[in-house]
UniProtKB/TrEMBL annotation:
Residues 99-349 form the Glycosyl hydrolase family 92 N-terminal domain. One of its GO terms (biological process) is carbohydrate metabolic process. This is Alpha-1,2-mannosidase. Pfam families: Glyco_hydro_92 (PF07971), Glyco_hydro_92N (PF17678). One of its GO terms (molecular function) is peptide-N4-(N-acetyl-beta-glucosaminyl)asparagine amidase activity. It comes from the Bacteria. Residues 361-913 form the Glycosyl hydrolase family domain. GO terms for cellular component: cytosol.
Length: 945
């Protein structure tokens, strides 16, 4: 049952949970002062204007650009770029990269990294503070003032930690500062630093290490990290290459060094286990200065150096291998007489070290052959300029900084996994490792394969990995579908390579990816969210175009599409090492069973199987995607199309439909099919108890959220959801009420029911940030909900809520992403929001209209075509659409189609400070009905009432 209009004095007058953004504090205080209900407040033009004016932390901020020490108050990032005395890149060559601020998201919950990389690069060369913990998942936390070096692989915005392979740290005799407490690797050399001596932009990072007075600079090509260190005069200066450095779940399983004196280079590998097990990184490191001396050392897991080689370790000549030991190399340079600038290049490969530039890391090193640091940096900048130029916006300068930083972050996932020759390493296993190193599924096989989609033995596409699909399918891949469709096609061919993995006996043991990196399926999160991305490239034709460009024959192209369909159908019918789906297939839902005793907020679910309600809702969406893909390849007359079209209605099996007090919501169901009201977390104790239904409380039936936040998770059938949900509302409230008004009332209540700060600190887990009522902008399940007012003819509310969600979540500071960025998911939401539209259903080819931020935005959609969004009168106050035209003709629809965007043209908006409650409200203006098939379990649900 709806909870009713909330009294502002009771709970709305508290700042949003885990937020202190000035914009929303002012918004909340205004609401309290006027004691208005949500329907008036949320859309009061002057109040929204105040909210927008404070957007992104632009009003009331300290105007002093000097950064304070990391131990002091959180500073505003200095966006100025350190060009140096002899800049490698002219400012005019940084047309768009000048707006990129990689520090956004490095504070609080964003979990991004500030280092150097290329778009989707294999190498992410970035600084490490040296500590474990939630804040250090990317290796770097802005509030820390220590640094232990620079490692070559990082996760951007993840919620769990791994990677940080091959740490490099420059030192000299000016300090003996060691990090020993709370360190990811004990007993490591460290330095202090100050943010005023640190800067970064796309493809470049620099910092002064105060303890040693060494300037560090980083840049990268796709597969090579390039370092430049300016050592002051000192009696002894070294680069430490540390293969034992580890973060969070990761740990070194095998380390190897070999010194190639003749070629002045270091060879080696680091094998590790952790969140993704059986990771293998091979490398070659070259230096442009002569080496005075090199020595190797062995360390145990506590950072203690062995005097003698431990058991299982061998050292022969210039070669060292440390099985389960943590090896370090100390590379010494001659700085006794003068300052010395050292450049070092480190090429990665997950295949092998290789030799003579013919394979593995040796081949990948050819990316930077004959290039010095400045040239590599120029190349990296040029790559970023090319990608960022696919969307050119004009308007507010501060908004441009946030926009291009968001676009930059959107391009950090889906990373290159194959070498230049197309080879890559795969791992055939199921779920990943736990922190104690014990695996619930053994490694079966880790073959070296080639990115060969048509099976002719020759590499043809770029193989990608790092797929956080539960997060990214919502907006990262839809953005790729518009601005980089060829890359997205290669991503889908990479999916197929996962599905067709074989064991040593030749049996197919793979599955489509769920959450993968470094060739591993980790099993993190839930659902089958490769399916919307596959459906996208099949229904929009981008895979077909890419395969034609690759020279595939018609027969080969059809074969690949059929293999993709077969892979989706297999995963949609069969249990795997990661997911059990058969119960859902049979019953239309996954059941839950309460444990004996209590669970708690952070560690133990009260259910034997958690997230079951979310599983069922998201499986139904996946089924719809599979049906659309089948239709595109085989047509809608084949039985498998009808099978998955019907299954896409299974979301109805989770809806507790009836007239009782606690019905009218999506809930978990037990093994007998009865709905479960318990399982939510008591905010006073943090224990998972509760008998009566509380949709506003964190509940283990849902993924990282609660009943409110998953109540609109039917992206593929919003019209069906409206009919289903409001039929219940009509019966229990007002039979004469219009269903559109009832659905809008649900949305109003959702956006106004704030957490009660007096109830306790355990109401939500850490994922729930950036609140607008129950809406959580800081986590993914809610991202589409602000756009749902369009479906009931109230688009002015979508415009207001989208603007307010921006206010509470995004700004140009280290805290400028209010939740885990999850490989650009938070950021790509902002990109779409700024353009003025967003895909509620990721693969449907429909984009719901929101509110644009810029005077103009030119989107390069390929084939020499541009789709342009222009505005008259847009400002931080003027967020409401007054009228619109598409290619010069009146436009009142609250959605665009993918074909309209890709055809090129101009969408023009006239904006104002007050809502126009006539625009976009016609019967034909609402987004179309996407629902298909029939609900086959209706009688079973009715029997549970």
């Amino acid at each position: 049952m709806l909870l009713g209009k909330i009294g502002l004095a009771e709970s709305f007058c508290q700042p949003p949970y885990s937020l202190s953004l000035l914009a929303h504090e002012v918004l909340a205080k205004e609401m309290c002062a006027f004691k208005l209900n949500m329907e008036f407040i949320m859309f009061k033009p002057t109040l929204v204007a105040i909210s927008i004016a404070l957007s992104l932390g632009l009003v009331g901020c300290n105007s002093d650009n000097d950064n304070v020490d990391a131990s002091g108050k959180q500073p505003i990032v200095n966006p100025d770029i350190d060009m140096g005395a002899n800049p490698a890149i002219a400012f005019e060559d940084m047309d768009l990269t000048r707006y990129v601020n990689p520090f956004i998201g490095t504070g609080e919950l964003g979990n991004t990294y500030p280092g150097a990389t290329t778009p989707h690069g294999m190498v992410q060369l970035s600084p490490n503070n040296g500590s474990n913990g939630w804040e250090y998942i990317s290796g770097y936390f802005y509030k820390d003032a220590r640094m232990v070096g620079f490692s070559h692989t990082h996760l951007s915005g993840a919620g769990a930690g791994d990677l940080n392979d091959i740490l490099v740290m420059p030192i000299n005799t000016r300090s003996d500062y060691m990090l020993n407490e709370g360190s990811a690797s004990l007993n490591v050399e460290a330095s202090t630093f100050q943010h005023k001596n640190e800067s970064a932009t796309a493809g470049y990072y620099t910092v002064l290490l105060d303890s040693y007075d060494i300037k560090a600079e980083l840049t990268a090509s796709d597969r090579v990290g390039v370092h430049r260190y300016t050592f002051p005069q000192d009696e002894k200066s070294e680069l430490i290459v540390n293969l034992g450095f580890k973060l969070n779940w990761d740990y070194t399983a095998d380390s190897y060094f070999k010194w190639d004196k003749e070629n002045n280079r270091l060879l080696g590998h680091r094998f590790s286990d952790g969140w993704a097990p059986s990771q293998k990184e091979f490398f070659i490191m070259e230096f442009d200065q002569p080496i005075k001396n090199i020595r190797f050392a062995y360390y145990d897991k506590d950072g203690k150096e062995y005097v003698d080689a431990p058991a299982g370790t061998t050292e022969i000549g210039g070669e060292i291998r440390g099985k389960h030991q943590y090896a370090r190399a100390y590379v010494e340079f001659d700085t006794a007489q003068s300052e010395l600038v050292v450049e070092a290049k480190l090429a990665l490969s997950n295949v092998e070290i290789g030799e003579n530039g013919e394979s593995g890391a040796s081949l990948n090193m050819t990316e930077v052959a004959g290039k010095d640091f400045d040239q590599v940096r120029k190349d990296a900048t040029a790559k970023w300029e090319k990608e960022l130029a696919k969307i050119k916006v004009e308007g507010d300068h501060e908004y441009k900084q946030t926009f291009y930083s968001a676009l930059y972050h959107s391009l950090l996932g889906q990373t290159i996994h194959s070498d230049l020759d197309g080879r890559y390493r795969a791992v055939t296993r199921g779920r990943g490792a736990y922190p104690n190193g014990e695996f619930d599924n053994p490694i079966l096989h880790d073959p070296v394969l080639i990115a060969d989609a048509n099976n002719d033995g020759v590499g043809d596409y770029t193989r990608y990995d790092t797929f956080s699909l539960w997060d990214t399918y919502r907006s990262v891949q839809p953005l790729s579908s518009i601005i980089e469709p060829d890359r997205l096609a290669d991503v889908v061919l990479s999916f197929l390579s996962f599905a067709e993995l074989k064991d040593e006996s030749g049996n197919v043991v793979g599955r489509l990816p769920e959450w993968t990196f470094k060739g591993n399926e980790t099993g993190m999160m839930m659902g089958m969210h490769s399916t919307p991305i596959i459906a996208d490239v099949l229904t929009k034709g981008s895979l077909e175009k890419r395969m034609i460009d690759l020279g595939f024959s018609e027969r080969e192209r059809q074969d690949i599409k059929e293999r993709l369909i077969d892979a989706m159908i297999k995963d949609g019918r069969e249990d795997s090492a990661v997911d059990s789906i058969k119960e859902y297939v049979t019953k239309g839902y996954k059941s839950a069973k309460l444990r004996e005793g209590e669970g708690d907020l952070w560690a133990h679910s009260p259910f034997e199987s958690s997230w079951t309600a979310s599983y069922s809702l998201e499986y139904a969406y996946n089924d719809w995607c599979i049906a659309q893909a089948i239709k595109a390849v085989r047509g809608d007359k084949v039985p498998e199309y009808q099978e998955f079209a019907d299954r896409s209605n299974n979301w109805k099996a989770q809806f507790d439909f009836g007239g009782a007090k606690y019905q009218g919501w999506f809930k978990a169901r037990d093994t007998e099919g009865k709905f479960i009201d318990a399982g939510w977390v008591d905010p006073k104790t943090g224990k998972a108890v509760g008998k009566d239904w509380r949709p506003d409380m964190f509940n283990y039936a849902f993924t990282e959220s609660n009943g409110w936040q998953y109540s609109f998770s039917v992206q593929h059938d919003i019209h069906g959801l409206i009919n289903h949900m409001t039929k219940f509302d009509q019966e229990v409230q007002d039979p004469k009420a219009q269903r559109g008004d009832l659905f809008a009332a649900r949305l109003d209540e959702y956006f106004s029911t704030y957490p009660d700060r007096n109830a306790g600190d355990n109401q939500y887990p850490i994922f729930n940030t950036g609140n607008l009522g129950q809406h959580v902008q800081g986590n993914e399940p809610d991202h589409h909900v602000p756009y749902l007012y369009n479906y009931v003819g109230q688009p002015w509310k979508t415009q207001a809520v989208v603007a307010s969600a921006t206010n509470v979540c995004y700004n140009n500071t280290p805290d400028g992403i209010c939740g885990n960025d999850d490989f650009g998911t938070m950021s790509s939401w902002f990109v779409f929001r700024a353009l003025g539209f967003y895909p509620v259903s990721a693969s449907a080819g429909i984009y719901e209209i929101g509110t644009p931020m810029f005077e103009s935005a030119n989107i390069d959609v390929g084939n020499g075509k541009t789709f342009t969004v222009t505005t008259d009168g847009v400002s931080r106050d003027a967020i409401f659409i007054q009228s619109a035209t598409l290619n010069g003709k009146a436009f009142t629809r609250t959605y665009l189609t993918h074909d309209e965007i890709m055809a090129g043209g101009t969408l023009h908006f006239v904006m104002g400070e007050k809502p126009n409650k006539e625009w976009g409200t016609g019967k034909d203006d609402v987004p179309p009905n996407l629902g298909v098939g029939s609900f086959l379990h209706a009688n079973e649900v009715q029997h549970t009432q």
